[in-house]
Amino acid sequence: MADGDDVDVVDILGDDYAKTILVHAREEPKSVQALSDACEADPSTIYRRVERLTEADLLTDHQHLDPDGHHHKVYATQLQEVRIRLGDDGYVVEIDRSEPAADRFTRLYEGFK
């Protein structure tokens, strides 16, 4: 049987706003305002979806510094692939996520030791 986290991810992926957020944040990180525009939804709705997607490790956030010195968060998609198959005990859900840049750097650095 799929564990609770995987079932939550499948539930999240069924949401149209979540799908649009993941698609638009795939190529480059986007602000909530840009995602709100893409979804044609109120920013408060997008903040709720962004929070769920971030908690499920399907979206990651970064601080973006504007040239004028202000900063805000931008969000990037981590989800690469979801596979669902039927096993002997129920659904088996496998989720592939991209590796965060900091983790990739650490892995590469440790490989040089």
| Low-confidence blocks of residues | none
Distance between the termini: 41 Å
Q: What is the domain total for the residues?
A: 1
Provide mean pLDDT, rounded. 85
* CATH architecture type: Orthogonal Bundle
β-strand percent reads: 25-35%
Structural class assignment? alpha+beta
| Helix count, DSSP H or I runs of 4 or more residues | 5
Helix content: 40-55%
The CATH first-level class comes to Mainly Alpha
DSSP, total strands: 4
- Biggest β-sheet: strands ordered side by side in the sheet: 1-2
Largest sheet descriptor: 2 strands, antiparallel
What is CATH's topology name?
A: Arc Repressor Mutant, subunit A
CA radius of gyration is 16 Å
CATH superfamily: Winged helix-like DNA-binding domain superfamily/Winged helix DNA-binding domain
Topology as a string of helices (H) and strands (E): HHHHEEEEH
Q: How would the global form be characterised?
A: flat
What do these coordinates show?
Helix content is 49%, strand content 27%. The protein is flat, with a radius of gyration of 16 Å. It has helices at 4-13, 16-27, 32-39, 43-55, 101-112; strands spanning 59-65, 71-77, 79-87, 90-97. It is of the alpha+beta class and 113 residues long. The strands form two sheets. Strands 1-2 form a two-stranded antiparallel sheet. It has a two-stranded antiparallel ribbon with strand order 3-4. The N and C termini lie far apart (41 Å). The model has no long low-confidence stretch (mean pLDDT 85). The protein contains five helices and four strands. The protein has one domain: Orthogonal Bundle (Arc Repressor Mutant, subunit A).
